[in-house]
Each structure stands twice: as C-alpha cells, then as structure tokens.
Amino acid sequence: MKKIPFILTLFVFTGVMSLIAQTNVYAENAKEGNIGISFEGLVDSNYGVLDPENPTKKLEPIGEYGKTTGALRIDFVPSIKFNSNKIVDKDVNYSADALLFKDVIAPRGQFIQVSDYRGKQTGWSLQVRQETQFTNKNKKASQLDGAVLSFDKSWINTPNGTNNEPSVSKEVIRLNNIGETYTLAKATMGTGGGTWIVAFGASNDNSAEQTSTLNPRLDENGKAVTDSSPNKQAVYMNDAVRLTLPGGTKKEPGTYSTVLTWIISELP
Questions:
Q1: Does 36 score more than 70 pLDDT?
Q2: Does residue 207 sit in helix, strand or coil?
Q3: What sign does the dihedral 188-172-86-90 (CA atoms) show?
C-alpha cells in the first residue's frame, strides 16, 4: 500500500474567507534446443501528467502535486483550492477552483491519474481519507465543525485505447466521517492495466459527453477573477468538488487546514 498525504488549506480573513483546500519481461529457454521467449505485463509509457479530457496531450502542473513511484502508482494528485468568499452565517457550498496548467488556457476539473504496469493486472483500488477536521493553525482550538468535502460527477478516461476500465462511483462521495477511508475507483482482476484518469467534473467543451461543471468565477462586482500568474488566467469554479459549511459553524480569521491521504493499493 502506498500513501500520499498533502495539505488542503483554507485562508480565512476578517469578513472574507478564501478556501485553499515496472514492466516485467520474462525470457526463458525452452526444452529440446528450441529457444522461446515470453512477455508479461505492459510497456510503461511514462506519459507524465495527461489532460483528463484529451489524454493524448501532456500537461505541466502549476505548483506542487502528489505522486508515487513504482509499477502501480499515482502519477498525479492535485492540491484542491477554494477561492475568496465572504464569511456568512448561512449554509454554504463552496466550489473548488478548477485546475490550471502552464501554457494552457482551458481549465480542467480535479482529477487523479493512476498507472498500473505490473506483470499481472490483479486489480487495485484508489481511496482517500481526511485525517482531521479543518483546523485554524493559529488558534488550535478553532475548527470548522461540520465542514464536509464532496466529490461528484466521476468519470474515467485513458490514453490506452482499451475497454478494460476500472469502475468509479456514480454517487456523490462525501467525506462525512473524519478518519474513514472512501473508495473513489476500483479495478477488478484483469482490468485497470495501463494509465487511467479518474476525473470529477468536466469543461463545457469536453468531447466525452460529460456534464459541464465548470463556470467562470466572478467577484462581487461581476468581474472575472484571474490567478496570480503572469498570464493572468481566468479562474473557474468546479461544482463537482465542493466544501459544505453549516451557517452555524464558528469561523475565525486565520488559516484552516486539514490533511487528505490518497491511497493506491493492490487487490485482492
């Protein structure tokens, strides 16, 4: 079992809340002087990080991201960020910022990229666990009670050109219980070989006939919000990844953070 922990943070200011949340080849000599050779497994293409909507295209992530190594691995886990929002005393769903990549204008929904190039495809599972509730790093006693992260509109894409795809949940995955492990995708025996992208939401121009979940993020004056990069890329919201916060939750200025552990594990 391999694990990737990374920090999902929320920035909270007075009156405004910003939410940052090997291929195995076997050769053998046959009897009676004949020479035989056999191959098992798949050739590891080492694709890098791929566009979830066009997996023939490689992307260059902005900032840090999670990954593991090995024949069964996670190639990409993004940091999940939520933008600046006013602090209010009513129930609110905050949509995550869609992902932006270097030299790419089109935003993308959150996704995890998994690769399985073991000698035999015995199956795997992709899971996530929230270790703690969002806690104010300056005031350890302050946490966002009742805050719940959720992942929706799951779908699969691949550059493999194969139908042996893993399965994903068609229900909304809510991390209701701190410390509980939730399954995002699962490959049974004989499936999940190669590289797979588990995506949550999609852009309006996706060619996979997925429901669009991305919309421009606007400020209080109705103007487009842009990121801090030199290109000033427009920031989009992804409604498929949300943070629900009850209105009665006490919110204090400061930075709130939690830890998500992403797990790729062999089956059975």
A1: no
A2: coil
A3: negative
